[in-house]
Write a structure and sequence with these properties.
By secondary structure, the protein is mainly alpha-helical. It has 8 helices and no strands.
């Protein structure tokens, strides 16, 4: 039960690895420019974990952070735009007066969901394949349309930090604590299970 290859030890090791990755990812998000790089590096490690080729998640994350800095800069701008949209929408929902017309609100919601869906593929593509940014962007859009059920799942998982406090405000503290220690890396890990299958077909 407590052998090095037992299920319990493998589970605890995976949890520790995800906690380390989560902390490193949060540190990488201190500046907006590094946020995209952090997301790409996070997926670099979690995709390898499912392929069984990752032995040192923390070391691999830091190496990927250095290697992917320049290629990931455009994704940081898209991520900033998405986060700004989500922040605006949250402010509108909690405002005491009507700040936007229903049509504008629906448009902004659609834009935020679209960007989140696009980034759900864009970060992993940058982590997994070597290509130009325009090609990665085009491939992300095509994959999002070609795999709509998976796209819905990935987008929902990535929006959980926003959706859970919105629908269950009493859980704000629990949600914040979970995403502080495990949430982001766990989300990327779950997403990587499906993404590896899609990328295997693509390859």
């Amino acid at each position: 039960m407590f052998g090095p290859n037992s299920r319990l030890i493998r589970f605890l090791t995976a949890v520790c690895d995800l906690m380390i990755l989560n902390v490193l990812f949060l540190f990488s998000c201190i500046t907006v420019v590094l946020a995209g790089d952090g997301a790409v590096s996070l997926y670099t490690v979690t995709l390898r974990m499912f392929r069984g080729t990752e032995e040192s998640p923390g070391k691999s994350f830091l190496h990927s952070l250095k290697r992917n800095f320049l290629p990931s800069v455009p994704t940081a701008l898209l991520l900033l735009t998405d986060m700004t949209l989500l922040a605006v929408l949250r402010g509108v929902l909690y405002a005491e007066t009507l700040l936007l017309s229903p049509a504008v609100f629906v448009f902004l919601v659609s834009a935020a969901v679209f960007l989140t869906a696009l980034l759900s593929y864009l970060f992993p593509l940058l982590a997994r394949f070597d290509n130009t940014f325009p090609r990665h962007l085009g491939n992300a859009g095509r994959l999002a349309v070609a795999h709509l059920p998976v796209t819905f799942l990935l987008t929902t998982i990535n929006l959980l930090p926003v959706l859970l406090p919105l629908f269950f405000p009493q859980l704000l503290g629990v949600v914040a604590a979970f995403w502080m220690f495990l949430g982001f890396s766990t989300g990327a890990w779950v997403n990587s299970f499906y993404l590896n299958r899609i990328f295997s077909e693509k390859a």
